[in-house]
Amino acid sequence: MAEDSGQDKSEQPTAKRLADARKKGQVPRSKELDTFVSLIVSAVMLLFLGKSMALSLADIMVEHFSLSRSEIFDSKALTEHFSQAIFDAVSLVAVFGLTMMVAALITPMMMGGWNFSSEAIQPKFSKFNPLKGLKRMFGLQGAVELLKAIAKVSIVFLMAWLLFDVYWHDFMQMNRLPVEQAIYQTGDIITRGFLLLSAALLLVVLIDVPYQLWNHTKQLMMTKQEIKDESKESEGNPEIKGRIRRAQMEISQRRMMDEVPKADVIVTNPTHFAVALRYDQNGEGAPILVAKGTDLIAAQIRNLAIGADVPLVAAPSLARALYYSTELNQEIPHGLFLAVAQVLAYVFQLQAATENGWEKPVPPDKIDVPDEFRQR
Length: 376
Prior knowledge:
By secondary structure, the chain is mainly α. It contains 13 helices and five strands.
């Protein structure tokens, strides 16, 4: 079956796949969104600043092109007037241009974010293949672009027709208005019409943005085999990882066994569990668990302890409690202080008796372990 063989691209792209695609410049983009935002921003700017800009431009024309007879025949004066007119006009529209530039920079953040890829700008000779070009033209992407173009033309035409119908009477009445008022009213109608025409493209954007997101994900879909291969590449071969884990466990176990001869006591089950404790009598901390194990490892701990003359104390409940509640090289829990203190007191009494030839003390026959630490 195709799915069993891992040939169907039915799996969502992984984070690595998305990151690799981004490095290649493959991010979701909507040209319709970029165009829509640019048109709306420019229409709003014209709506609020258009009148003042037009008046300022008129003042510039009057100031720099109302020349006297002497200035007309003076090439230097003409050049100065022309240069100053250009400078004033550019300064006037600078705010408009900067606003459009900011809008062009911010728009990509709405979809896909900013992205620069050196791979994307490299020439690809496959793009010059006419067969692939025909495939793009007559494929799904080409059909979608054609439908979008038809939709844009239809929406703009319909909106233009509606605006023409709404403002037809106003246009017909302009011949009765003074020239200056007619110009202002014409500019106002054109600006409002431009804003409404731009806003009408929102319908195309609402369709194109989800499609581009879906198409981007679809192009990056993966087969199950690709996910397995990626996992092997990023995390390593499972067999190699298993060998590394075993080697790490062996190193950790050897280090643990090296600590057994330095322990003060080994608390045993007495056969299935063994826990090695070390306590610094001059320090302020609690006893530390330096080694622990079950079955074969417990037997190795006991053998090393016997060879190093480390006392063994059989306390089944305490041994199990310490094994399950305390990690290596950690202090024992506060709730086990009293039980461990009984064991250490016996050990220190045993050491003193051995050094001085006294009678050996009796091991504690009953060690109380709190119920919350008891293990069944």
